[in-house]
Records
---
Amino acid sequence: MNIETLKMFKDLIDTQNFTKTAELNFVTQSAVSQHMKKLEIIFKTKLFLKKNEKLELTEIGKIVYQYSSDIVSKYSEMLEKVNLNFNRSILGEVRISSIYSVGIYYLRNYIREFISLNPNIKISLNYMEWDEVIEKVIKGDADFGFLACKSVNDHNLSSIPVADEELVLVAPVSFKIGEKNQVPLSYISSLKLVFFEKNTPSRKFIDNILKKSNVKLNITMELNNIDTIKAAVMSNTGFSILPLNSVIEDEKNSRLKFYRFTTPLYRPVYMIYCKRKKFSKEVNRFLNFILSKKKEKNYNE
């Protein structure tokens, strides 16, 4: 058990929402669930129950919540005093808007690393729809935007490809394709599919790839959120095509399976920012950090 786990528990009870708790702690929803399970294993009892769409604390849960709040508060107080002692006040802020799947599954580890290297720079990360990300950057309400599948064609914006995320076939954990861990793209024609909604860039991007490969689609459900798509696959509603980063943890914990395609598929990830905007030193530092990670990845490949 650590302070990070206690903070997640406190945040979950305060927000009553797994997604918000994940966002507050720069982790996935499944990671929050795993931390809660570990906490209940440690105390050998349930800490909360779901009743009428609310999380209600058990008697033991109330005790753990009270002390978790005290511990987290004391820890925050300690950090503040340490920062004051070493004169490490916040120098500046980097404001980021991102589509959910990129922010939670691609950006989170980079943000953690950047914060560890630059503890006096604040990172504000907000999850939005594709069009809203662009609007925030154009209006100046965000320094950077992160999108997938489609670059932005706007003379005011720079749109830089920063990564290529591998796409994989995602299947219920009970499903098996012999001993193989790869499938041809044509295999999709035989499956019931759960995809993103038609108007999303990710859906258009995948549809275009499948159309070029003459793959017929049998779509049984359309959803607008990557976590709801995974939940649908977990409940045996169908199969999906999702970024590998978003399902690695689920396979490790036996909640989903994924199969790579024999001809690998990738979706591009773009970072956007205003061309004419003068950046602060802190914002420039984040830009250079992301670009260095891109160069580092290309070098390793």
Note: The chain has three domains: 3-85, 92-162+269-300, 164-267.
---
Amino acid sequence: MRYYYTRDTLFVRGNFSAASTGIHGGVRKVSTIFNHTVPADFPEPDPFGYLERLIAREGFGPDFFGLLTAVDMQHLCILHFDFIAVFITAGVQQEAEKSHTINIIVLSSQGLAPGAQLEAIITVSGAKAEALGCLGYACTGTPTDAVVIACEGKEMHEFAGPVSEAGKRIHDAVQFGVQEAIRRHEGRIERKTPSMFIFSRYGGDHWVEWKAEGCPYYPCHFAGQRCELCYCPFYPCRDVDLGEDVESIGGGTVWSCSRCMLMHRPEVVDYVLEHPEAPLGELKKIHGRIPGSRSMGKTKPRKKKGKKLP
């Protein structure tokens, strides 16, 4: 799995088994999941046709799940909790004539059985309702909310209810993330770019918002490092040149890439921002050599697809 975003669209790419309640949803294999911002007075009579045209312009195949929102992509919240990643845009309006949508995409790097994928939708809905209650809203959602649950890898989780290993991570991320996303959309918290949150167990379980600006650990790897991709969009890459599975204090194992410097190399970061579809092997060649791995040759640069947000 990997993800990136432009000024109006979040793209998540991979080889997913997925379930969607969105436009032309269902349960199927997809390679692209995206959330696209449209004007509040979006007049499109054929929203699925609109999504098809958008994905075709990106050069991606027809195997996709697409969502639409009136929320600006700068208010996107991205949350990482072990093997679960959640992407949320959220807007709620009390007036019926105003646009409002809560879109939630859940990605698991560990497999979910088909039943668990559907159960995860129930878990997301409950967590969303709790979040709205915490903010003082009487509603449990909006008329146009959508959820996508997707996973990669072998089936490892048969259940995704809120007390299961997968479900409790999904529940906590959604319950926390919906509140943060709404606060940003409503202007209570101001951010110029999407917000990144990491679940930390150090000093007690809590969520941490990661920001490159003013990081107290800089430079944590080497002088002159770049930090825009500190929480790598390739995670977990499963590339043994770059990381390994280690025991997790939360139980089981987790992919550790603490020794990987690739996404901190200035030349690699520049290349990823210009070419977000570049495969990992191509980025390894851009750098030329990775500590602890064999030497890599140069690669022919790709054509630019437009400047992406950091």
Note: Helices lie at 47-57, 114-134, 165-185, 266-274, 280-287.
---
Amino acid sequence: MILLKTVEINSAVFFYSMLSKFKYQILLHLIIIMWGFTGILGKLIHLEAFIIVWYRVFIAFIALGIGMFILRKPFKVRSRKQLLKIAFVGILVGLHWITFYMSIQLSTASLGILCLSTTTVHVAWLEPIIMKRRISWLEIILSLIVVYGIYFVSGDFNANETKALVYGLISAFFAAAFAVSNTKLAEDSTPAQISLYEMVSAFIFITIVLLFQGRIDLTILKMSQSDFLWLLFLGILCTSFAFLAIIEIMKKLGAFTVSLSINLEPVYTILLAIFILKENELLGTNFYVGSIIIIAVVVANAVIKSIEKRRLKKAGNQVITS
């Protein structure tokens, strides 16, 4: 009996020590799973894409504001010009999410998130323009392989699925545009400031669109209890908490570890879609072969960039020491 209790105590201590040691890695993958789950929510929430995103950005900026106040993060942006730039990028964020959910609602969560993996295709040509750097031919080649993967996936699509594919690829373009723009904005503003004001501007933009459509009335508040709870989960945990937490995780684990791990998001989404939405019954072999091609390229791109970065850093250190 005493031996059994000793084993239980030792097991508990070992489990706790492992949990403490890898808590940031565990938290990182929980956040990536939550991000992967956002695609599933496009099916679970029975509201139009515009309305889902309208609620998401509204809940997110309220939650972010409260989070920044509690963590005592500065709200003031350096200049009005900087604020206008952030506001414009916020509109891109809103358009990205709207087209993303439109893609999912027309087809499957798996297709929507897979299209989002093609963001790197657009980053390959957008980053040299926005960040004023040389074109990477390696990125161009990898992007062409991704395009082949998309061609493979869409081989036996019907009209609705083709339309979903178009919306998904447009969503990926907006994702690339705001991702590269955020890199530029981060030179003068904190990530928390950027995220907060992007959510505010996205909310204002979508509200204006809905006003012009004559859809801002009491009917917009009509939803089921499950829709309301999923929207809270989407806005607070998947958006606000995840964003603030990822900043802290990046400080502990480094940008490369985080960015490489985020490439697993499509894998998590597809697995979740199989278990929750039974999408494996809707998707053929072509889809999964194309998915493997695209995800392999995305991960390979991150690994190659890491090797290049370490090589340049090593070369730089050798120059300094000599």
Note: The two ends are 65 Å apart (CA to CA).
---
Amino acid sequence: MLHLLDDPVSDPLSLYRYRDGISAVDLLAVGISHLDFFTWLADHPSTFAAITAHFEIHPRPTDVMLTLFTAQGLVQQNGGCFHLTLRAREHLTAGSRWNLAPYFSSMKDRQPTLDMLKVLKTGKPANFGSFDPQAWAQAMQRPDFAAQFTAAMDCRGILLGPAMAKLLDLSQHTALLDIAGGSGIYACALAAKNPHLRATVLERAPVDRIATECIAKQGCSERVNVHTGDIFAGPLPAGFDVHLWSNVLHDWDDSAVRSLLAKSYATLPSGGLVVIHDAFINAEKTGPLHIAEYSALLMNITEGKCYSIGEYRSYLGELGFEWLEHKSTAVGRGYIAARKP
């Protein structure tokens, strides 16, 4: 199991950014070419609520859009209102001699750009209407599809799991539940770092079978097992003093995130830890830019986004958790740890 803690010599952050930022350009193109957002904001510095009302766009993608534009240095918040920066005023507003809007107009009718506009208007991911969970479950029975899916889960986790395991102190804890843990790579990395720890991956069928196979390939079956279940169906399994939510909560809207974290609070014993491992927007919602770009992708393909440190502080505090720490790990990711009193 020790090989699970190996680190690469080089930093792949730039490669992550190519993939994670693929939707950010389309969101910017919508703001310029479909909404003419910057021209309007130049004359109407506005609150978040006023922006959603004027453009008739949904709050979740509006939040992602404004965070992205702030991180790009195009808008800034002052006194509760969003204002243009000089860069946006000179280069993205009608009437400016340096206006780049015509340059972006060639992107206006690209399908990804049109999909992004639809997300802004409806709040639903672009593939929401066509996603068929039953068809996905059937596809997972095919060895080729299952292998591709597993590789997608493992290739990030083989870097991110050890980075988290080396920083997260679990010396006083004995049983970890890796919730919606995919291939089990994060549970295996934490078990490799903590020989006293047993871990269970909670997954629904057919991922549960794949997780069992992946855990065996990592040589971790003696201390990491799989429990079949659905995170939205009933309470979480009892008997664990650590709950890990790794790259899960960003797929869901804030009401679902609150509900899922409430399940952790209800099931964890006193002194139990909840650990959220993800990519986080900073508390001020001004960046980092690469996470704001990633949030645009998540907004486009899921019902969620990258949540901010401030939002998680609020969610956890409202439930009664005691905030412990936020630490950065690798390629722009990190974890938040909080304790149930």
Note: The first helix runs from residue 13 to 20.
